[in-house]
Amino acid sequence: MICINKNRERTMKMNSVLWAASLSLAGAGMAQAETVRIPINEWTGQHISAHITGTLLEKAGHDVEYVTAGAVPQFAAIANGDLHLQPEVWTNNVGDIYPKAVESGDITVVGQLGLQPQEGWIYPPYMAEKCPGLPDYQALYDCAQAFAAADTFPKGRLITYPADWGTRSKDVVAMIDMPFEPVAGGSEGAMIAELKSATATQDPILMMFWQPHWLFADMEMEWVAWDPADGECVEEEGQERGKACGFQQASIDKIINAEFAEANPSVAAVFEQISIDNEVQNALMLEIDQKGRDLEEVVAEWIDANEETWGPWVEAGRAAQ
């Protein structure tokens, strides 16, 4: 759920058409593959993960090619070996195609990338003074008026995702009977502009948002906390006050073609070690999406400044050669 700072769910659906990349395999088997082919999906965060991965594989002595591919169609290409590995798979946006590909044995889940994806309601820290009890969501029942606007009073105003991104926040508000009026944001850009305007004057604001996102490298925000889920949070049913888990959270997997990993242990060893957290990705996205810097330049700058972090990852690959 996007350039990672665009709506992931919407863009993935839009890009679920056949991936438009022409791959020339020239009859070469995977065991003889000299070039690691990494898919490039539809959002900035994935571009960062892919290029960090590719750069470190190059440092371990491997050739790398980046191939534009849709976030859903890529699984068939990875399963059959046309593409080799993907460092950033958002498991909540790919339907049942991904688990079926994993179950087939053609794709190996190497582990988690290290990102901690989060979706939910955010608010600026000064709102905690106006609504004692935050971040607990139950505080919002007692201080809805602190978040009210002229067109929602006495209900609080909740800015949700744009209408064509779905109705998740609206559905949760209705299920748990929270005294808030969901108001759809016009776009990601409009939502961010409203958030910045409100914080500049310390006006009330509560907004559905997600991370990783460059916003969190630029502004201080807090998250509304929900009741623990009994297992995985189910958004569509069963939530009520006192038993509200809020929103299902994704995991972010690293995957590799199983046969390719077996034939290329050095690549697999580097890939297994790679880890990227929210702080890193948020900061790099800020440079690219807000400051207009070149992706390759920003990634190279991070690589140059963090050899102590990635050096052991590359050494693991060299040792496996």
Automatic annotation (TrEMBL):
Q: Where is the ABC-type glycine betaine transport system substrate-binding domain?
A: 35-304
Query: Which terms in the Gene Ontology molecular function aspect does this entry carry?
Result: transmembrane transporter activity
Cell cycle as UniProt keyword:
no
Report keywords, A-Z: Signal
The Gene Ontology CC terms held by the record are: ATP-binding cassette (ABC) transporter complex
Mention any Pfam family matching this sequence.
Answer: OpuAC
Q: Which segment of the chain is annotated as a signal peptide?
A: 1-33
Indicate whether Signal appears among the record's keywords: yes
Protein known as: Glycine/betaine ABC transporter substrate-binding protein
